[in-house]
Amino acid sequence: MSATLSDTAPLDTPAQAAADGAPPESMARATGVIALGNVASRVLGLARETMLSTLFGAGAAVDAFNLAIIVPRSLYDLLIGGHVNSALVPVLSEYAAGDDDRRDLWALVSALLGIVVVTLSVLVLALELLAPQVIGVVASSNATPEVIAQATDLLRVTAPALMFLSLFAVLSGLLYALRRFTWPAFASTVFNGTILLVTVLLYRQLGITAAAVGWLVGAVVQLALQAPGLRDAHLRVRVRGALGHPGVRRIGLLYLPVMASLALDVLVNRPFSYNLASGTGEGSISYMAWATTLIQFPQGLVALAISVAILPTLSRQAVDRADVGLRQFKATLGQGLRLAIVLIIPATVGLFVLAEPVVALIFQHGKFDAVDTAHTALALRLYLLGLPFAAVDLLLVFAFYARQNTLTPALVGLISLVAYMVVALGLLPWYSFFALMIADSVKHLIHTGVSAYLLGRGMGGYGGQRLPATIGRAALAATGMGALTWAALALLSAELPDNVLGRAILVVVAGGIGVAAFGAFASRLRLDEWRWLGDVLRRRLRG
User: Fold this and answer.
1) What DSSP line would sit under 236-297, residue for residue?
2) In this structure, is residue 93 part of a structural domain?
3) What CA–CA distances, in Å, run from 312 to 23, 175, 179, 317?
4) How does DSSP classify residue 404?
5) 3 state SS for 78-103
6) C-alpha span between 497 and 24 (Å, rounded)
7) Tell me, what's the pLDDT at 114?
8) Mean pLDDT across the chain, nearest whole number?
9) Is 216 buried (19+), middle (13-18) or exposed (0-12) by CB count in 10 A?
């Protein structure tokens, strides 16, 4: 696949595909590229977490590393990461659609690069100088002096990665706007692979610092990976007059509500969560991190892949305010939602049933023991309760962004954040840090329900997209799948040894039975969306 995959073929419109209810071929193609990149990234991400758990266990070293990377990652999300889908891609897509020679597009991106370089240089220097104070804010008062001291040293290693992550965000937003999905889709794969490789090579000499070095090197490498996709781009770092560019001002206005929402997450939600978790005992932050890594696998494979694939198309359709543009917008969104529903519901049920053997297979090595497996599996199952809502919600939020409405999702996020904090505090005395997983699921439920209502009201409905029927059939098929997977798991567990090979056979065989069962039930229930996926897969294998 080339970097210009979606530029080399005409883009099917939803109207053209509506005859049989199938999604446009371009949507499936782009989703496939992004999903493949997400699969590779998640696999390497799991390998990275497995490596950390094996080498260091669920103790002070990994807690310190997680504290050190949460600071640059949170600042990245706040200052630039949230721009990509909320403001950059919608505005850059509009520029790309109406700019034949792309001169205006290159000028806008050059101005954005200049702003990033100047702003992030100052911020990285501040992090280096104020590392002890920053870690003191993020860590709980119950954190040990060993964790605080080690996290401070690691932050000084990871802080420069913030610059490279931010430059990558701008360039990846440009590539998505140009519908060149391959290079940014595989960037996180390279990022995780680099962390894994550097840590394995250097951990004997540097200990947990090797992981921090890998994080910095990975940020540099994923930025460099975008260069082949931008060979025709005329970009430079433009500082003079950058803030006065009209496109920059539009992006800034769109991003203000998102930044406010992310600021609440970075400055309130994440410190709140980490403080509560670290106060419940050593290892709690690590359990949360490992469960989050697993939950992000289906989330990235399904919801993020579909959302990113359709965002440029939704953004261009949203510019057309006529009835035709609105109908196409609803059709594209509806097709994305149905695909996400049909994939995320069985993924949630399957991972819920197989949670403990999956965690044991991936993490139970070295210093990670059966108790750690039980805690991580329970955290994962509680997170999974909110996964279907989170997947649907991501597409709804992207639809708001495509319509260049960032205020509504930000306000809905504030409501759901308050609910999260209330539930977490209320349940903490009874459920310890597991209260955070329950609260997270409640947050996604509330955010999805309110977003769906407001977006539907703003569009005048969803245009007869058969969403309730799709949900009902997918849930029924997934229930049958879950029952058969559980039965297979119970039978095989009694026969297989409790070692790596036995766990691998258990997960593969029981999971394979589950996939086959869902396919059979979906066909029996005439789940059209499952047929779409089968048709696309067969065409790709033949072509």
Assistant:
1) ----TTGGG-HHHHHHHHHHHHHHHHHHHIIIIIHHHHHHHHHTT-TTHHHHHHHHHHHHHH
2) yes
3) 15, 10, 7, 9
4) T
5) HHHHCHHHHHHHHHHHHHHHCCCCCH
6) 47
7) 93
8) 84
9) buried
Average pLDDT, integer, range 511-530: 90
> In this structure, is residue 489 part of a structural domain?
no
Q: Quick one: DSSP state of residue 304?
A: I
Whether the Cβ atoms of residue 294 and residue 347 lie closer than 8 Å to each other: no
pLDDT computed for residue 10 by the predictor: 30
Closest CA to 155 of 213, 81, 76, 203: 213
Within 8 A by CB and 6+ apart from 323, the residues are none
User: Over the stretch 476-497, which tens digit does the pLDDT of each residue have?
Assistant: 999 999 999 999 999 998 888 8
Q: Please provide the DSSP assignment of 435-474 as one string.
A: HHHHHHHHHHHHHHHHHHHHHHHHHTS--S--HHHHHHHH
* Residue 269, pLDDT above cutoff 90: no
State residue 385's pLDDT score. 95
Token pair for 302: 């399904």
How many distinct structural domains can be found in the chain?
1
Burial of 240 (0-12, 13-18, 19+ CB in 10 A): exposed
Structure tokens belonging to residue 112: 């954005």
Contact assessment for residue 472 and residue 525, using Cβ atoms and an 8 Å cutoff? no
Considering only the C-alpha atoms of the chain, give the largest distance between any 2 of them, rounded to a whole number of Å.
70
| pLDDT at 142 (0 to 100) | 66
Identify the domain containing residue 146 by its residue range.
59-271
**Better pLDDT: 99 or 343:** 343
537 φ, ψ to 5°?
-60, -45
- Which residue type sits at 234? H
Model pLDDT for residues 300-314, shown as the tens digit of each residue: 778 777 877 788 778
159 inside domain: yes
Inter-CA distances, 179 with 3, 284, 331, 394, Å: 9, 40, 19, 19
pLDDT in tens, 128-146: 999 888 888 777 666 777 8
Instruction: Say which residue, 267 or 441, is predicted with more confidence.
Output: 441
- Confirm whether 234 is domain-assigned: yes
pLDDT the model gives residue 82: 66
Residues 149-195 have pLDDT tens digits of: 888 999 999 999 999 999 999 999 899 888 888 888 888 889 999 99
Phi, psi of 188 (to 5 degrees): -70, -25
Report the distance separating Cα 233 and Cα 212, nearest Å. 32
Q: With contact defined as beta carbons under 8 Å apart, do 109 and 169 qualify?
A: no
Q: What is the predicted pLDDT for the residue at 141?
A: 62
The angle, 0 to 180 degrees and rounded to 10, between the axes of the packed helices 323-353 and 500-524 is 140
Contact indicator for 364, 290 with CB cutoff of 8 Å: no
The two three-digit tokens of residue 409, written as one number = 């999702």
